[in-house]
UniProtKB/TrEMBL annotation:
<dbReference type="InterPro" id="IPR036249">
    <property type="entry name" value="Thioredoxin-like_sf"/>
</dbReference>
<feature type="domain" description="Thioredoxin">
    <location>
        <begin position="5"/>
        <end position="123"/>
    </location>
</feature>
<dbReference type="InterPro" id="IPR013766">
    <property type="entry name" value="Thioredoxin_domain"/>
</dbReference>
<comment type="similarity">
    <text>Belongs to the thioredoxin family.</text>
</comment>
<keyword id="KW-0813">Transport</keyword>
<keyword id="KW-0249">Electron transport</keyword>
<keyword id="KW-0676">Redox-active center</keyword>
<keyword id="KW-1015">Disulfide bond</keyword>
<dbReference type="InterPro" id="IPR005746">
    <property type="entry name" value="Thioredoxin"/>
</dbReference>
<protein>
    <recommendedName>
        <fullName>Thioredoxin</fullName>
    </recommendedName>
</protein>
<dbReference type="InterPro" id="IPR017937">
    <property type="entry name" value="Thioredoxin_CS"/>
</dbReference>
<dbReference type="Pfam" id="PF00085">
    <property type="entry name" value="Thioredoxin"/>
</dbReference>
Length: 127
């Protein structure tokens, strides 16, 4: 989870989606040590808007393989992470680059808006 590079198939070397769950003990390493931009999804299983956003987050991980790492944090299981991030509502999506927070959105976003938001930051992180 705390690996630094890209996740690739050992046979064909194709970039694979990097979607991991993190909690209190491994959140910092999962985000801080990543060379890729990291999209953190703070969610809870009982949260309807979180379930609405989840397919888009998973699609972004798949379609941006090799360019984006997605870290999912269950707010109920990692309240310390939620507190440190200043989460006041879920879903909260936080973009990190170089271990630093770059931007965030709170609440369910339409798939197209969320995709544009992520892509804008992926473009900025390459410049």
């Amino acid at each position: 989870m705390a690996a630094r590079g890209r996740v690739r198939c050992p046979a064909c070397h194709t970039d694979l989606p990097w979607l991991v769950d993190a909690g209190e003990g491994d959140f910092d390493a999962a985000v801080r040590d990543s060379r890729l931009p990291v999209l953190v999804d703070v969610w809870a299983p009982w949260c309807g808007p979180c379930r609405t956003v989840s397919p888009t987050v998973e699609r972004l991980a798949a379609e941006r393989a090799g360019r984006l790492k997605v870290v999912r944090v269950n707010a109920d299981e990692a309240p310390g992470v939620s507190s440190r991030l200043g989460v006041r509502g879920i879903p909260t999506l936080v973009l990190f680059a170089g271990g630093e927070e770059r931007d965030r959105v709170v609440g369910a976003q339409p798939p197209e808006a969320l995709t544009r938001w992520v892509d804008r930051h992926l473009t900025e992180s390459r410049t």
